[in-house]
# Entry
Amino acid sequence: MTRIHQVKGRDLNDALERARDAVGERAVVLSQRTAAGGVTLAVADTAPRTKDELSRLRGRARAILAHSPEVGRVPKPRPSTAEVEERLRMSGTSQRLTERVLEAVAGRADEGRHPLDLAGDELGAIFSVAQAKMRRGTTTIFALLGAPGAGKTTTAAKLALRLSKAGKRVAIVTTDTHRVGSVEQTKALGKHIGCTTIALRDPAKLAQALASAEPAPDVVLIDTTGRPAEDGAALDRLAEALALENVEAQLVRFLVLPASANNEALARACATATCDGCVVTRLDETERPAPVLEQALSGKLPVAFLCDGPAIDAHLHRATESVFADLLLRGRIAR
Ligand SMILES: Nc1nc2c(ncn2[C@@H]2O[C@H](COP(=O)(O)OP(=O)(O)OP(=O)(O)O)[C@@H](O)[C@H]2O)c(=O)[nH]1
Ligand SMILES: [Mg+2]
# Structure
């Protein structure tokens, strides 16, 4: 026997859509009533076979609608935060940050935007991008500190290549002069990129070199030894020497943080060196990029660059707000 269903919607289109969802494609609208709160439809779940049956059903439908209460205000569907929560879980986001993001998304539920976009906005506002403006006539020295194997040398090469391509005069300095092959590795990279390389056991000596350089490089990348506490102290001496020599230079220290490292190692790295920002490497080696970004956040280290592979000409990305959203909601940097 044909059943008659009542379906309410905000307007006719909404009610028709809901009728299709509730009753199926074979739904036949028999009657409708419009009121201030929206539209109510009386819908048959099977098509009447004869004209007589149709008019009988219409009569019943009109009677049902006449006795049904006024259409109440149909609540606007609230965007679901379940997808945001699931994606944050997949990227290894902490409970605390997840709750913060979900709360922000729920608070903006009536903006009519997709919850993932709202979550992306919130993440973009939480994580910070390192500002390292290069000034004309001043040598910018980027020093890369970090644990052994973090990706310092590779990142120095990636930055050198990027900046050379931008027309900057670039020099790479390695302070890792003890380890066998390290100076040769730097020289080979410099040759490949087409930039100057210098091996200096004590980076403070760079101040004299810059004072007498004509022309001075626009950018110097210092690749350190992998002992952040000692490297930090050596860079403090360099800062003093630059001031003594009156060298027009700004020293920016970036901690290199591998995304594949565990939380303990990351927290240790953040605690051992005082830096202006960080470079996140090895994002291609983990499906959980959130912990490294959260460590950077709690260590008050804005992110300058992110690396998702070893290739010096392909795997370096400037940090942006949308990159943070990509990583935490999609697990990787969109290409
Ligand atoms: N998959 C992947 N490998 C990387 C990345 N960055 C660097 N590597 C590789 O990691 C290894 C170590 O990188 P290095 O740049 O030599 O690391 P380092 O910090 O200079 O290491 P030490 O000088 O020993 O302290 C090399 O084989 C790199 O090719 C990255 O983002 N992803
Ligand atoms: Mg190295």
Observations:
- The chain has three domains: 4-67, 82-126, 139-330.
- The two ends are 56 Å apart (CA to CA).
- The first strand starts at residue 4 and ends at 9.
